[in-house]
Write a structure and sequence with these properties.
The structure holds two protein chains of two kinds. Chain A is of the alpha+beta class. Chain A has two domains: 1-59; 77-253, Glutaredoxin (3-Layer(aba) Sandwich), CATH 3.40.30.10. Chain A has helices spanning 3-59, 97-115, 138-152, 157-166, 178-188, 192-197, 204-216, 241-253, and strands spanning 77-79, 86-92, 119-125, 224-227, 230-231. In chain A, helix 2 (97-115) links the parallel strand 2 (86-92) and strand 3 (119-125). Chain B is mostly helical. Helices cover 75% and strands 0% of the residues of chain B. Classes of the chains: A alpha+beta, B mainly alpha. Chain A binds chain B through residues 21, 24-25, 28-29, 31-32, 35-36, 38-39, 42-43, 45-46, 49-50, 52-54, 56-57, 62-63, 130-137, 172, 220, and chain B through 49, 58-59, 61, 64, 130-134, 172, 175-176, 179-181, 184-185, 187-188, 191-192, 194-195, 198-207. Chain A: The chain crosses the membrane at residues 30-51. Chain A: It comes from Paractinoplanes durhamensis. Chain A: This is Membrane protein.
Chain lengths: 254, 207
């Protein structure tokens, strides 16, 4: 290769490198343009979402306390005949697995004692496990459904409550959808108009207040059972001990 | 483009002082957040129902996040890792600000370790967002500052050619940084996270 050829080759190489650099700069400018557009789009989207969710908040009833009708004097949801001598209070969260176990073990006995007029129940629905349903607030949604039923179709509260336990989702999952809860209530015999009212979430605030009141009153977790106001400390996960305590209380009362 | 205010800002952004300054600031934020989270992990261990300062509502709650198994993956609170690691980053940033230039291998190792830290931070963010279903403000601060430290460290390592990359890739990355593509990417990334948070939790975040 002559000196001239070498110089030519070198010049070509430099030119190619310059062209490559130019192409790269061009690509980068395009990337910057596209990136800027993406940033603008993201900002608009963020503001849109924040704006709609903020205005959404104002239009829903959240924050307004509406108390269900037909509540017991304690502020809980009553089940059974008011004349029954023994009052069994149940603090529960429909997401709580232990509540499900309690229900499984004792539902038959509670049904029998309700039918016999020995006991009346007072349900204190709580929602502290809202954080355990992947942000769907399962506890509040179900408690609101029960409160709505108490308000409009009080005799269906207990069957709905049992149906919710029979179909209880695992803790930490997003739980049943609103539609599934509605279907379940319909199957349980809750009137359609009442089921349709679930979605208004009328009693969300009441549920939260009920939850906070329970903690303030010293409830430490769910299920907490009180018999005639006295905390039941026995085994709640097997049938028997609770029935015994109830019958003892009934015997003492009569 | 190297004239006027824009030019001055451009030079400032690529100066060691600015980069290591940002790194120092971000790692201090991380350390503070780790300290608060460690303190709360201890409070929570003593009393699982303790009412923490940042339990604001159902969505913003470090109590919920702190009690999840993901928050002590290695058998102790994750925040302890921050207490261990962030002072090292602070030392490196402060030493660099004072003029120390660390060997290539050192910076390369730092990049690898910090990348692992970043992956861990984002795994936690993902878990908190989609599995625990609650956010904690101090954890979000860790996510943010970890991202900033990572981006400054990467910036410096690409600028100084510390990453043992092939020559062409290295020069392409350097050109990209010269055009502030890294800044663009970080801004887009952070905005995407903000969007994801408001999309998922928007209506309850302000409730």
């Amino acid at each position: 290769m002559s000196k001239h050829d070498r110089l030519r080759a070198k010049a070509r190489e430099v030119r190619l490198a310059q062209e490559r650099a130019e192409r790269r700069r061009k690509r980068i400018r395009i990337a910057i343009g596209a990136g800027s557009l993406v940033i603008v789009g993201l900002l608009v989207a963020i503001f849109a979402v924040v704006y709609t969710s903020a205005s959404h908040d104002r239009t829903t009833a959240s924050g307004v306390l509406v108390t269900p009708a037909n509540l017991a004097a304690s502020g809980a949801i009553p089940v059974g005949q008011t004349s029954a001598p023994v009052t069994v209070e149940i603090y529960l969260d429909y997401m709580c697995p232990a509540c499900g176990k309690f229900e499984q073990a004792n539902a038959t006995e509670l049904d029998r004692l309700l039918a016999a007029g020995t006991i009346k129940l007072e349900l204190h629905p709580m929602n502290f496990l809202d954080s355990r349903s992947k942000g769907t607030n399962y506890s509040t949604r179900t408690a609101n459904a029960v409160a709505t039923t108490a308000d409009q179709a009080a005799d269906k509260v207990w069957v709905l409550s049992k149906a919710l336990y029979a179909n209880q989702p695992e803790e930490g999952t997003s739980g049943l959808t609103d539609q599934q809860i509605a279907d379940l209530a319909t199957t349980a015999g809750v009137p359609q108009a009442t089921v349709d009212a679930f979605k208004n979430r009328t009693f969300d605030t009441w549920v939260t207040n009920s939850n906070d009141a329970a903690f303030k009153a010293g409830v430490q977790g769910t299920p907490t059972i009180k018999i005639n106001g006295t905390h039941f400390e026995g085994d709640v996960y097997n049938a028997g001990p609770l029935t015994q305590a109830i019958e003892q209380a009934a015997g003492g009362a009569s | 483009m190297a004239t006027g205010l824009l030019g001055r800002m451009h030079r400032l952004r690529h100066a060691s002082g600015w980069i290591f300054g940002t790194m120092l600031f971000s790692s201090c934020l991380s350390l503070i957040a780790s300290f608060v989270l460690s303190k709360e992990a201890i409070t929570l261990a003593a009393d699982p129902n303790a009412n923490l300062s940042c339990n604001i509502n159902a969505v913003i709650s470090c109590g919920t996040v702190g009690s999840a198994w993901q928050s002590h993956l290695l058998g102790f609170p994750n925040a302890f890792l921050g207490l261990i690691a962030e002072p090292v980053v602070i030392t490196v940033a402060a030493a660099s600000l004072a003029g120390v230039r660390f060997p290539r291998g050192f910076m390369y190792a730092a990049q690898i370790v910090y990348t692992l830290g970043l992956i861990f931070a984002y795994w936690l963010f993902y878990q908190s967002m989609f599995h625990i279903g609650a956010l904690c403000p101090w954890c979000l601060l860790v996510t943010l500052s970890t991202t900033l430290v990572f981006s400054t460290l990467t910036h410096i390592n690409i600028r100084d050619g510390n990453l043992f990359l092939p020559a062409r890739l290295s020069s392409a990355l350097r050109t990209g940084i010269g055009f502030n593509l890294d800044l663009l990417i970080v801004v887009i990334w952070l905005l995407m996270i903000v969007l994801a948070i408001v999309l998922k939790y928007g209506d309850r975040l302000f409730g």
